[in-house]
Design goal:
By secondary structure, this protein is of the alpha+beta class. The chain has one domain. 33% of the residues lie in helices and 25% in strands. The chain contains 2 helices and 2 strands, in the order αββα. The chain has a two-stranded antiparallel ribbon with strand order 1-2. A hairpin with a 3-residue loop joins strand 1 and strand 2. The longest helix is centred in the first third of the chain and has 12 residues.
């Protein structure tokens, strides 16, 4: 897990990487190449996969359209 977090920190620290607050990144190890971003998708299309559910709800909350009362 520490390797995955270190890789993801490197990706997110790169000035060329611009993601909306509602983005989810799937990362994994590619044999013979190392860590890679496998896919980027919207929060509502992603599973929790061991993530903190409260943090997932925060991301989905930002993706929600709030209607006027």
């Amino acid at each position: 897990m520490a390797e995955a977090e270190a890789f993801l920190s490197t990706v997110l620290a790169n000035d060329r990487v611009e993601l909306p607050r509602t983005a989810v990144l799937d990362i994994g190890v590619i044999a013979g190449r190392g860590w890679a971003v496998v896919e980027q998708k919207s929060a509502w299309g992603a599973g929790i996969y061991g993530c903190d559910p409260a943090q997932m709800l925060e991301v989905i909350w930002h993706a929600a359209v709030r209607l006027p009362a």
